[in-house]
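We were asked to recover a plausible sequence for a given structure. The inputs and outputs are reproduced exactly as logged, with field labels preserved.

PROBLEM: sequence recovery
POSITIONS: 175
GIVEN STRUCTURE:
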């Protein structure tokens, strides 16, 4: 016997705290998936408007589903907006050496990789493929995971260090 849920029933699972954020997002994604296609393009702004899941949370949940081998995230270009005018006097060579020597963790490493590539202004376009090669050698999944971690951090004025705008993300369902 199969159970089918409509959009209102899926939303009720979240409202009544029957489903976790991950479970709710999984069901919402499955509800919008074409059953004849394993690839799903997700308009993240539309998904947020319909389901109330922010870009950061969506990416975090997609990463969790990827870890569980439910789906595979195709690396996607995103826009990062910095909460403050960030700058550093640390050089790329110093960051690479600190990472090699184990003096900084992966989150800090990604933070500086982004910061050193941001240019002027608060808005930065990030393509995961650009960080997967030398000198950074950060896998797209690690970059996405650490960008989510950084987006959950606050500046001294309690503003977000960065905010994400994914626009679109493509996943391939493995199950």
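RECOVERED SEQUENCE:
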């Amino acid at each position: 016997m199969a159970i089918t849920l409509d959009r209102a029933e899926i939303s009720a699972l979240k409202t009544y705290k029957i489903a976790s954020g991950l479970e709710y997002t999984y069901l919402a994604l499955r509800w919008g998936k074409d059953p004849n296609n394993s690839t799903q393009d997700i308009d993240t702004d539309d998904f947020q408007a319909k389901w109330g899941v922010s870009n950061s949370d969506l990416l975090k949940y997609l990463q969790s589903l990827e870890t569980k081998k439910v789906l595979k995230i195709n690396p996607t270009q995103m826009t990062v907006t910095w909460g403050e005018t960030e700058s550093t006097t640390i050089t790329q060579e110093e960051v690479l050496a600190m990472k090699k020597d184990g003096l900084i963790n992966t989150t800090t490493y990604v933070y500086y990789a982004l910061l050193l590539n941001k240019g002027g202004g608060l808005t930065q376009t990030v393509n995961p493929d650009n960080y997967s090669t030398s000198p950074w050698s950060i896998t797209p999944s690690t970059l996405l995971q650490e960008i989510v971690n950084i987006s959950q951090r606050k500046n001294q004025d309690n503003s977000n260090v960065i905010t994400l705008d994914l626009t679109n993300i493509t996943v391939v369902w493995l199950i």
